[in-house]
Amino acid sequence: MRSSRALKTAIALAGFAVGATLPLAPASAQRPASDGIQLAGRTVRCGSVRIVSDRHIPSEGAAAPGVLILNPGMLNAQPPVVRLFVFHHECGHHTVGESELKADCWAVQQGVRDGWLDAKGLSSVCQSFEDAPETPTHPSGRRRCRNLDQCFATAVASLRAAKPASPAPAARASVEVASATPRLVSGPKLVGTGTLRYSNGVPCKSAATKPADGMQAKTGACP
Prior knowledge:
Blueprint: H1 3-17, E1 30-31, E2 37-39, E3 42-44, E4 50-53, E5 61-64, E6 67-70, H2 72-75, H3 80-96, H4 100-114, H5 119-128, H6 141-162
Parallel strand pairs: 4-6
Antiparallel strand pairs: 1-4, 2-3, 5-6
């Protein structure tokens, strides 16, 4: 959109806002609200608002009581993301009222939620304002761009906060696999002292006896 065209658009829509009638398309060009329309590869709707195609309006889109008006000739000259933004901006007027900044923000929220608006697309939308000056009905392009950035950051943060946290991975049980040939990895440790006794009640240290032939013999089960 050129700045001069944006200024003419604002003047024309200002007249519409105070009661002037924009030329509407024939009834055959109006679509029932439930049908929606195909726009930039998506089916878009605006609640119970009827969607009207009209090449006579001096902008890509406009909003009237109960009607959303699109100029297909001008709209199709814009990138897909801008077409979607224009539609949702005009739809936003039916929710937030006449405020252009609020309608911009509403469109951004829908774009982030539905996945068609990212940071690159937001830049394209901002460029479509062409740094237009302030008018009696529209903020300047720069002001709208600043507003877009704030709305986008808020919408992204809200979307992230609304997503359920991913469950933590289950802890793996530690499984110790024995080797084929057990190996001693450390020396034995003394954990207690005492006197070894056998089933006959004789201490091992006193179990040895010396037979007459002078050779030591073992009794019981002494080692």
